Amino acid sequence: xxxxxxxxxxxxxxxxxxxxxxxxxxxxxxxxxxxxxxxxxxxxxxxxxxxxxxxxxxxxxxxxxxxxxxxxxxxxxxxxxxxxxxxxxxxxxxxxxxxxxxxxxxxxxxxxxxxxxxxxxxxxxxxxxxxxxxxxxxxxxxxxxxxxxxxxxxxxxxxxxxxxxxxxxxxxxxxxxxxxxxxxxxxxxxxxxxxxxxxxxxxxxxxxxxxxxxxxxxxxxxxxxxxxxxxxxxxxxxxxxxxxxxxxxxxxxxxxxxxxxxxxxxxxxxxxxxxxxxxxxxxxxxxxxxxxxxxxxxxxxxxxxxxxxxxxxxxxxxxxxxxxxxxxxxxxxxxxxxxxx
Length: 341
Hints:
alpha/beta
């Protein structure tokens, strides 16, 4: 096999996995015509050693690259949205984490740290559309479910995340039922809005087409029938207006959970970062009471990693929890210690 681009290399690797061709013995990377220089390609696997492909000279063939490996494309995840929903149904917490650094290596490490899901932060992170498939692939290979916190609940961003392979969407800044209705409609295919009355349709649905999520059409029917209807959907409560409209938001039958964004919520109250302020605590209590009344799953983001705070929030009833951020884990652990000089 001769491959001229990194994108095709990634696609070919996935296709070989889906076709069951696990015993690839030689790959030629075209350095002369394909633009490869001294590049190392590392594909994280669900089990076993990494497969490393390297080329230095034009047309160099790398022999015996892998034997009997199990590439992650098309393989079942260690954690799925079904298992996440099962945990919530059993009133158990599901704990994920947040990704802001656009690196598949970091994504896999975060997934392998034991989280149920890893959310790619498309709002405050540094992610572009072309990099999403590899990041989601790395999260899957690490054993977690790939989620996306969108920059906004727009048609373009929802489509980009889902087509790249996100299995869960976290909608930011949901302040009303109207906003949530539109976001969820844009996340489901026509005919899959089963909560509607017979004959009723949405103004607009998710676009239908070949994409990475359905293996560029190879698994189109399977994805549309089995995986697309199961996308995990979360509304972020990040403004005091959302608290006022909480009952209507929680009543949407397709909503899986909510997540409080503490910084934005406190900011909307003129109390940015003042989480101990009585008014902010009252708003949080109101959200918790609303969720308890509606039988909904409340969640929040513990931005600064703190095991004691995680335990406290779970004991208080939070069930869908984002713990930390990759960038925060990094700078907290990487700060130079005081040398005493």
